[in-house]
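I have been asked to look over a protein record a colleague put together. Alongside the sequence sits a line of tokens, each denoting a local backbone shape. Please read both lines and tell me whether the tokens look consistent with the sequence. Take the sequence as given and treat only the tokens as open to question. I have pasted the whole thing underneath without changing anything:
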Amino acid sequence: MAEGGSKVWTVFSLVSALAAAAIAKKGLNTSWRAATGKNPPENPADPDVDVWEAVLWAAVSGTFVALARMLAQRKAAGYYLKSKGQLPPQLQKGDAVPNTST
């Protein structure tokens, strides 16, 4: 059963992370246009894009997309816990504590 649960969690986690990233990106694009009056840089590495605009876009978009993905995966783990009665196999803590003394 653990193998089946692992596959279910992998798909569930991936779908939730991708959906959250897409929603965050759309929200970021809209917010960027509202704040700056122009579209976000398509390619921040393009030399025609001002370096500070590229740095700001990379920092803001990276942060918000990562946060959205993390929150979506936490929510997905909560749904998994409610439906299966345990955390996904990848999130379960090991029962044994490694012995570091020699």
